[in-house]
Recover the amino acids of this structure.
């Protein structure tokens, strides 16, 4: 039983790391979307290839 008690903080740390990594992934996807939208607006549909 002592191993389970000592493993809980480690599990919480892994959970927080996973949530942080997923958040960073979502932020990156959002930045990619916004940058593509901005480039398409700046150069126009014909130049961008839409």
């Amino acid at each position: 039983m002592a191993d389970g008690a000592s493993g809980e903080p480690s599990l919480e740390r892994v959970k927080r790391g996973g949530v942080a990594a997923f958040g960073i992934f979502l932020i990156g996807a959002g930045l990619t979307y916004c940058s593509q939208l901005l480039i398409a607006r700046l150069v126009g549909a014909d130049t961008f290839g839409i």
Notes: The first helix runs from residue 2 to 43. The mean pLDDT is 86.
